[in-house]
Amino acid sequence: MCGIFGYIGKEKASEITALGLFILQHRGQESCGIAVSDGEKLTLIKEMGYVKEVLYQERIEKLDGFAAIGHVRYPTRGTPNLANSQPHLIETLNGPAYAFASNGDIVNYKTLRKEYEKKQIFFHSDNDGELIGKMLVYKLEREGKKIIDAVKEIMEEVKGAYSALFLTKNRIYAFRDPWGFRPMIFGRTEGGFAIGSESVAMDIIRAKEWREVEPAELLIISQEGAESVKYDEEVLRKGRKTPAHCSFEIIYFARPDSYQYRQFVHEKRMQLGEKLAEKDNIKADAVVPVPDSSNFMALGYSKKTGIPLCFGLIRSHYIGRTFIKPSQSIRDESVRQKFNPLYRFFHGKKIILVDDSIVRGTTIRKIVRMIKGAGAKEVHVRIASPPVKFPCYYGIDTPTYEELIANKMNIEEIRKFIEADSLMYLTVEELQEVLDSPENFCYACFNGDYPVLEGKK
Ligand code: SF4
């Protein structure tokens, strides 16, 4: 998962884009970057680190230009280093002329890369964004194709998830894969147009109106206006009738104040909590969320059961999300530094601990231990999603079967491993009952039903 943001218009593009990226920081914290066009040349800044450290005011205000695209990275393909960070600047004979950034991950990377290497295209990274960007430039520059045809061919050839931004000297081209895996929002501001991963970024830049970019849609955006080209998504999906939006975005990744896949994320999270409560009969003293992504789920659970909600775990906001730290040692460190229990609160109590998901099981085990260490009598863990049993190949870092606890253990074994007094999940069917238009979603990490049949990297 990553975040993208772009702006073209009358305001200073670098500042609006940096602000958009700052708001999308939860989608990736390893590196960030921005490419800006002033109509003559493209300038790129990218570094490892947080938006506020890399794209700070004094630096950004020196970047003149009316169009910019940017990226926050969370590594799925390729190691976390500068070469793999985005945007990618794509040089041509006349100097750098294009920049490309995308959110997602593709399943036929190796095949396509070999194919384009044979065409004498050289790569500086092993990142799929560079591959798609260079494929596009190849089609435009070497094959002389029009952008509309080149993007259509990209959609025919590239399998998997990509919400993409392509910057030229005077335009931004924004397109989304035919499955619509990752979100993408298009907004109109007072003086221009913006495109970003989540609607919350549109709220913060005060967009006057916004909408979701459709699967298999291309937007051609200049200072003067925006034009939409809609390809036949069903044909591009090889007959699959429905999109495959990532259900995990609703459960965990998106900010709760975003509107995504035509639903309000916080409402869906509350309903997931209510769904858990409907099938539960445990008596307890308090419902405690694992903050922040489970807050609304715990609220839903509490509302439904009448068991009081308490924020018994205090989260430090100055540390990244544990799940998206790239190595286990950093993840372990993060859990200890991230949560602290309210000691006097837990003493002698029977607790319902609500979390959004269990991936590896190590984080929740530490939290259960922490709460018991604070004196809780019992800890009953309730997970507002189905067991994660299968890896994701579309942009989420669950790379191997071995790392997924639900792939190795049944629910009782997981309960024992995490040292909880009881454990309950939602089923895939229950998750589907909560989502609007559930047929439009991907559930592959829960049920192994991969929407893109190649299915493996
Ligand atoms: S496999 Fe899971 S995480 Fe990946 S796109 Fe599908 S629902 Fe999302």
SSE diagram, text form:
Blueprint: E1 3-9, H1 13-23, E2 31-37, E3 42-48, H2 51-54, H3 57-60, E4 67-73, E5 88-92, E6 95-103, H4 109-118, H5 128-142, H6 147-157, E7 163-167, E8 172-176, E9 185-188, E10 192-196, H7 199-204, E11 209-212, E12 217-221, E13 226-230, H8 233-236, E14 245-246, H9 247-253, E15 259-260, E16 263-264, H10 265-278, E17 286-289, H11 295-305, E18 313-315, H12 328-338, E19 339-341, H13 343-346, E20 350-355, H14 362-373, E21 378-383, H15 405-408, H16 411-418, E22 422-425, H17 428-434, E23 441-442, H18 444-447
Parallel strand pairs: 14-23, 17-20, 20-21, 21-22
Antiparallel strand pairs: 1-4, 1-10, 2-3, 2-4, 5-6, 6-7, 7-8, 8-12, 9-10, 9-11, 12-13, 15-16, 18-19
Helix pairs in contact: 5-6, 10-11, 12-14
This protein binds iron/sulfur cluster (SF4).
Iron/sulfur cluster binds next to helix 9 and helix 18.
Q: What is the β-strand count?
A: 23
Q: What is the topology, as strand order, of the major beta sheet?
A: 3-2-4-1-10-9-11
Measured by DSSP, the beta-strand proportion falls in: 15-25%
Helical/strand content category = alpha+beta
Q: Please state the oligomeric state of the protein chains shown.
A: single chain
CATH topology of the largest domain: Glutamine Phosphoribosylpyrophosphate, subunit 1, domain 1
Bound molecules: iron/sulfur cluster
Number of helices: 18
At CATH's second level, what is the architecture of the largest domain? 4-Layer Sandwich
Mean pLDDT: 93
Provide the domain count.
Answer: 2
State the helicity in percent bands: 25-40%
N-C termini distance: 16 Å
How is the main sheet built?
7 strands, antiparallel
Write down the CATH class of the largest domain: Alpha Beta
CATH superfamily membership of the largest domain: Aminohydrolase, N-terminal nucleophile (Ntn) domain
Radius of gyration: 22 Å
Shape: globular
Give unreliable regions as ranges. none
